[in-house]
Amino acid sequence: MAGIYIHIPFCKQACHYCNFHFSTSLKSKDFLVNAIAEEIFLKSKINKEKIETIYFGGGTPTLLDISDFEIILKSIDKNYKIISDPEITLEANPDDISLEKLKNFKNLSINRLSIGVQSFFEDDLKEMNRAHNSIEAKRSIEISTKYFDNVSIDLMYGMPKMSNNKWQENLNIAFDYNLKHLSCYSITVEPKTTLEYFIKTKKYPALNDNLAAKHFEILVEKTAKAGFTHYEVCSFGKPGYFSKHNTNYWFGKSYLGVGPSAHSFDGERRSWNISNNINYINSIKNDKLPSTQEILTQNNCFNEYLMTGLRTMWGVSLREVEMKFGIDYKLHLLKNSKKQINNRSLFLENNCLKTTEKGKFLCDGIASDLFIL
Prior knowledge:
By secondary structure, the chain is of the alpha/beta class. It has 16 helices and 15 strands. Helix 6 packs parallel to helix 8 (209-225).
C-alpha cells in the first residue's frame, strides 16, 4: 500500500481560498485523536498491506500536541507492518514552528516537513487571511532546515494583485534557502469560500487566467535553472527529494485515509469519511466506519489513470493502458490525442503520452477531453 494519510481537521482561522474540511474549535481534539487511532485499528482488519509512507495533512496538523502524534503513530505501528525507512511527512504552518517542536518531531521519526508559506509578502498573506506573517514564514524555514534535510514549502501564484516581479521575488527568496522541494499552486475559486464571496461582491478582483499562465511560465523556467525537476504539475524536487507519498498517488497505488473527510483507495473502490468531526467521533465510538464507498468502473479507472498520469513527467504509458484496460482503450487514446499532439499540448515519447510545457498548465482540461464517459 502506498501509505496512510491522516487528516487533522483543525485550523486557527479560515484562509479565504480554502474549502477543505476543518474546525477552528479544538474542544473535540482529544476525542478526535483517539477516534483516529481507533479508525486505524478498525481499518487494519480490512487491509493489512505494508505501509510505505505516512502523511499528516489538514487542516493544520501542527496544532496537535506531541502526545497526540504519539497516539496516532503508535496505533499505526501496532496495527500495520511498516517498511524500514518510511517517509513521514508533516504539514506545518510557519507560526506553529519552534525549535522545541522541531526536536520533538525529529524524535518521533518525522523526516519530512511541508511548510505552508504561500507568500513571503505581508500584503499577500493578509489578503489570503493566513495566520502567519512574512517574518514567521522566513524564520520557519531557517530553523526547519537546521533540523530537517527534507523540507518543502508551498507557494501560491495567480493572485490578481501579484505582479510578475513579485512572483519572481517569492521564488528567489525560496531558492536562497537551498530547499529540496517546492509545491506551487495557482489560486482557484472554490465553492462556498470567502474568496468566492469577495469576487461575487466585487470586494476582490476576478482571477486572471492569463496572469496565472504567465506565473506558471516563470515558475517552470526559474525552477529548472535552480536545479529542480518538474515532476508533477505543482511539484518541483531536487534529485532524490520527490514526495514519495504523493508520487504513489499519481502511480495509482492504493492508500488509506483516516480522519474526517479523508479519502481511501484500494485499486477498485474509493471511499471517503464523513466531513463532520462530532459525527465522525460518534461513529467510531460505535465501531462503525463513517465512510461512503463507490466501486469504480473500468472507464472510471481509465479516466483516473489519464488524469494522474498526464500531470506527471512520466506521462501515460500506452503499454500500461493496453495491459490494464485493453486494446480498445489504447486505440481510443491514440485517436483522440491527435488534436492535442498537433497543437503541441501533448507528445509521444517511448510509447508514453506526455504533456508539453505548453500543455502542463492545461493538463486537467486536456485529460478530461480524452475521458471515456
